[in-house]
Structure formats: C-alpha cells, structure tokens
Design goal:
This protein is of the alpha+beta class and about 625 residues long. It contains 22 helices and 18 strands. The radius of gyration is 22 Å and the shape is globular. About 55% of the residues are buried.
Length: about 625
C-alpha cells in the first residue's frame, strides 16, 4: 500500500492499494496501484470488496462473472495483536434470496496466511473467470512487485485440507497456505465449502490445526474456479511494536475485549467454550435442533467434564496473547497427551455435538475434525444435519436420508462423508434448500439462507439484520443473555447502531477479540493506525466508514431479491415457543413486528443511493 497523506478519511485517493487480477481462463496476470475511493477502501476487507461486488449483477454464484476476491485489512500483518485476518469475498452459493439470487458474502479466518500474503507486497487478489484444470496459485515477494504464478494441482485433488497444506509445505517451506477440501472440489453438490488457513502450530507440529474461513461457501466458489490452494511466500516482516501499539496490545490482553476469552489460568472463561456455562444458566444452549430441554444434558460437554477423559491444551494464534484455543487430544493411560483430535470452539462443539444429540466429547471432536478435513463450514453442516434429524423425529415412518436420529454418531459421520464427497446434496446445499424440498421450513434454523450460529434465536432477533452470519456481522447475540436487555428500545439501538459495528473487524484485519464489545472505532485502533502508518483518523470517521460498509451490505441483500419478510428468524421460535428457556420472551409476533418496523424506519433512508456512491 502506498500513501502520500496523513488523513485518509479526507484524502482517500492519496492512498493506493496493490491489486493483482488473474484471468483464470487465459492465465493473464495484471497488477495495478488502485486509488482508494473512501475510508472503507482504505480499511480494506469486505469494506472494499463489497463496493466491487456491488458493480456486478450476478444471478448465479457459479458463473464466470462472479469473482473471488482475496484481500486483507489495513492492519493485517502489522504489530497490532490479532492482526492476522484474510478475507474471501464473492456471491455466495449457499446464501441467497427466495428469488434464487445469490447474496454477496465474505468469510474470514486467522492463521499466518494473511500476514504472509500482505508481506509479499500485495493487498488484494481477484480471480476472474474459471480455470479449465485444477491449479494452485503462488503469491511471492520479489525485489520489485509481488509475483503470481499458476501451477497445476492435479496431485492435490481429493486430499483433505490438512493434507493439501502438508504436501505444499514440502515445496514451499517458508510459506503459508489457504486450501479447500474435497467439499469445495465437489462444488456442484456442496455449497458450504470452507477455506482452510495454515497456522504456525500446524506447520511445526504437523497436526491438523488449521483455521477456517468457513461461512458462505467461499471454498465452494474457489472450487468452482478450479483453485485448490493459495501459497503466500515471503520473508517475515514483523517489526517490533511501538510504545503505543504495546499499550494497545496489553489492553487487548487485560481489557474488556478479550478478558472473558482468556484461559482459566488467567482468570478468563477458557475460550469461546465458556459460552456453554453462560448459556446453560438460562437453559439456552441449543439441544436437538435448537430445542433446549431444560435439563443438565449440555453439561456433559462442560470443560470440567471433558477434562476427565481427554487432554485439553490451551494455545494461541501467531504472536497473540489472548490464547483462546482449546485443543483436544486423547489422554493416554499414564495421563500423558495422546493423539490430537480437534480444536473446541463453542459453535462447532455445540452444532456437531449437543445440538445433534452427541454428548460424548470424543465423538464430537471426531465429527468436527471430519468436517474440517473435508473443508466444510461447521455451522452450516451441523445445522443442516440437525434439521434432518428433526424431520425424521417428526416422521418416524418415512425418514429421509439414512434415517438419522438425534445422537446417532455413526449416521452423522456417514452424512458428513457423503456431503464432503458430493454424494449427499441434501446436506451439502444447506438447510434452506432441504427444508423447502421437504415442505417443512419452520424449524430450519437459517436466516436468509445462511445457517445460524449456536445461539438460540429466542435470545437474538438481531439475527435478521446480520449481513454475513448471525454472530459475526451483528453483535446482538449477547444483548439478552449477557446484558439483560429485553426492551424494544435497547434492541433497536443495538441493531441500528451499537452492535452492527462488530463488522468493522472484518474490514481492518483484526480479530473480533481485539475489542469485541466496542468495535474498531476506538482510541486503541486510532493509536495503532497512527503508529503503523502515521494516519490521523478519528474514531467518528472510523465508525462512519463501518456504518457505510454495513449499510452497503444491507442494500446488496435487497438488490439481490430479498424481501423484508425474509429478514426474520425461524418461524418455530414464535409458532411453538420453548418454555424451557428461562429468559424474558422477546420473540413473540408483536415484538418482532414492532422491532422490524422501527429498524427499517432508521435504515431505509440511509440505504437510498448507497450502491451508487
């Protein structure tokens, strides 16, 4: 990135990012230094890519005109803690309107790939059209501009995400990697393909410890384009942090943003896994397709119970002090650590565990690892399987698929394999399509075609206005359970102002744990931008840019055929209220109707002309 200003909000065109465009049909590669249009462009991530996607009218995700945009945020690869994010954007194969049009989508993950990508000198990589043969792309630094090389990838076909990365590491020992699995290769029948991102821990230990850009099927779009992997090859360029960045990083570790995610040994909750304990207090941990039973069943996967039989090791991303990972391994007879199984984050553990009736940690870990190896979004995968289980529970005489029931580990495993190999499109295409096929949509737990995370919709009507997944692009998931807000004014304020700012992290290159409660419009971020780039940017300017980016995403949804009626949570929530959830009821029809009215009254005037700006 080049810049000749200290005020990118006032002079965005004085900042230019390095873009490479690859025509996969012809093999042509071109580079350009692109002047930024606004502060969203400067910040990067989806704030930039959604402006480019808005310029294209895409009717089918699997078409040559749908680009795959790979970019980073302004702070990716910097000395700011958590600044490791890579973004994959395009029109989604899985998320779409009832009119059949695909929605614009981005997905993001950590690992060291993003930093390596940035250190090559490249800020954005756009893949146009489609390759006739499987390829992988090598992005590498040179004495002048970054270089891109397309290489044949037939030897990678059929390999798991982890195995692809291990094969490539032998040829590129100084690189990091982004790879799809068999699910992405079978894009025709699997719309939930994810992109695996390599980690330092994975490359050193040779254990299957990828991070994932999972949401929205960007791995399937990558597979459609016949790109099996990306290689980012560069020397490490991590400088020593300035005093200002050190202070920000220390606040990230000890402040409110990540304190509850810290390990138990540091007074935290022990990663996102701690959500089990918080939500179980209200019987709000999803069970059996989001129908909590008001009992102690979820406690079987509480940390203290898992540790009795399995080894739990706390680890961190590259140069991150938050240490939020919980890696689960077998425990040998002598108590030593055995075979690595999986990383326990709350969403995969719940949605491929408790929510499908699996209460054994080892079985849940193996299902998580299996989905990861095939390269599927754990959220979409788990929620679609739980729908099939719920359908079969309602129709015991005429079950679908393999007759799967809640708690059937072997049949869940069978469906994951079939979906990953492209032989079970009923699972691979997601819960919206399966429920429409079966004619029973009320208990399919998706919003606008994208499966919801492991937070009961009874606790989060804000799901309806999330633009890229419920808990990652609308931070209202704890407004009731953590903050105790049940009045409509608080929810309108949360959706239309306070909690939408969570999307700012998916512009600038930071993990949400940098300051999940406040977003990126803070003094910490201002200090980091000043230290890293000598940029003078106000918190108000940052918050305005984040809001514009969010609204652009909302406008794109409407342009792609979504009606206001589709901005809703699953109908079962209000058609058959669950009395077991011990929280104030905020999802009765009158509340939802009034909430929608007031939210749209605020958003609609701001949406006018936004796609033209």
């Amino acid at each position: 990135m080049k810049y000749t200003t200290t005020d990118p909000a006032a002079e965005p065109s004085a900042v230019a990012y390095k873009r490479c465009t690859v025509d996969l049909k012809t093999g042509t590669v071109s580079f350009a230094d692109v002047p930024c249009r606004n502060l969203e462009d400067v910040l990067g991530g989806f704030g930039r890519s959604f402006q480019d996607l808005a310029q294209r009218q895409i009717d089918n995700a699997y078409c040559d005109e749908n680009p795959l945009i790979v970019n980073t945020g302004l702070l990716t690869g910097s000395t700011a803690m958590t600044a490791m994010r890579t973004y994959f954007s395009g029109y989604s194969p899985i998320k779409g309107s009832k009119k059949g049009l695909p929605a614009a989508m981005w997905s993001t993950g950590s690992g060291k790939f993003g930093a390596k990508f940035k250190w090559t000198g490249l800020d954005e990589l756009i893949f146009e059209n489609r390759s006739d043969v499987p390829i992988y792309a090598v992005i590498k630094e040179s004495d002048s501009d970054p270089q891109i090389e397309l290489k044949p990838a037939a030897h990678l076909l059929g390999l798991s995400t982890h195995d692809k990365i291990m094969v490539l590491q032998k040829d590129y020992p100084d690189a990091h990697f982004a790879a799809i699995g068999p699910a992405g290769e079978n894009w025709q029948n699997n719309y939930m393909g994810a992109v695996a991102l390599s980690t330092e821990n994975q490359l050193k230990s040779k254990e299957d410890k990828c991070r994932f850009a999972g949401r929205g099927g960007m791995g399937s779009l990558m597979g459609y384009k016949n790109i099996l992997a990306l290689v980012a090859q560069s020397s490490d360029k991590m400088a020593k942090p300035s005093a200002a960045v050190k202070a920000a990083n220390l606040n990230v570790i000890k402040g409110g943003g990540s304190a509850r995610i810290q390990p138990l040994s540091r007074g935290g909750g022990g990663g996102t896994w701690a959500a089990y304990d918080v939500l179980q207090e209200f019987h709000a941990v999803p069970v059996n397709n989001f129908r909590p039973q008001g009992n102690a069943i979820p406690e079987k996967l509480f940390r203290e119970n898992v540790e009795k039989d399995y080894d739990v090791k706390v680890e961190a991303c590259y140069r991150c002090g938050i240490t939020c990972h919980n890696n689960i391994s077998e425990k040998n007879a002598d108590g030593s650590r055995g075979e690595f199984l999986a990383k326990f984050d709350y969403e995969p553990l719940n949605l491929l565990g408790t929510n499908i009736g699996i209460h054994d940690a080892g079985q849940a870990a193996r299902l998580i690892q299996l989905g990861d190896n095939y390269g599927m979004d754990a959220i979409s995968l788990g929620v679609t399987i739980s729908y099939a289980m719920a359908y079969n529970e309602r129709h015991p005489a005429t079950p679908i698929l393999n007759g799967i029931k809640f708690g059937d580990y072997e049949k869940a495993r069978e469906l994951i394999i079939q979906a990953g190999e492209g032989s079970c499109p009923e699972i691979g295409k997601g819960s919206m399509r399966l429920s429409e096929q079966m004619g029973e949509t009320s208990y399919a737990y998706h919003v606008k075609g994208l499966e919801i995370a492991a937070y009961q919709p009874e606790t989060n009507p804000g799901y309806a206005w999330a633009i890229a997944g419920g808990h990652m692009s609308m931070g209202t998931y704890g407004l009731l359970t953590r903050e105790g807000k049940s009045d409509i004014d608080s929810w309108v304020q949360g959706i239309t102002e306070d909690k939408l700012h969570i999307v700012g992290f998916d512009m600038i290159g930071l993990c949400k744990f940098f300051d999940i409660a406040k977003g990126i419009g803070t003094g910490m971020v201002v200090d980091c931008l000043k230290s890293e780039f000598n940029f003078d940017v106000t918190t108000d300017a940052i918050r305005s840019a984040v809001r514009q980016a969010f609204l652009r995403g909302l406008a794109l949804e409407l342009r792609q055929g979504y009606t206001k009626a589709e901005f809703c949570i699953p109908a079962e929530v209000h058609e058959d209220p669950n009395p077991n959830i011990k929280l104030p009821i905020i999802t009765y029809p009158e509340f939802l109707e009034q909430l929608a009215k007031r939210v749209w009254e605020i958003f609609e005037p701001e949406l006018e002309g936004i796609l033209d700006s």
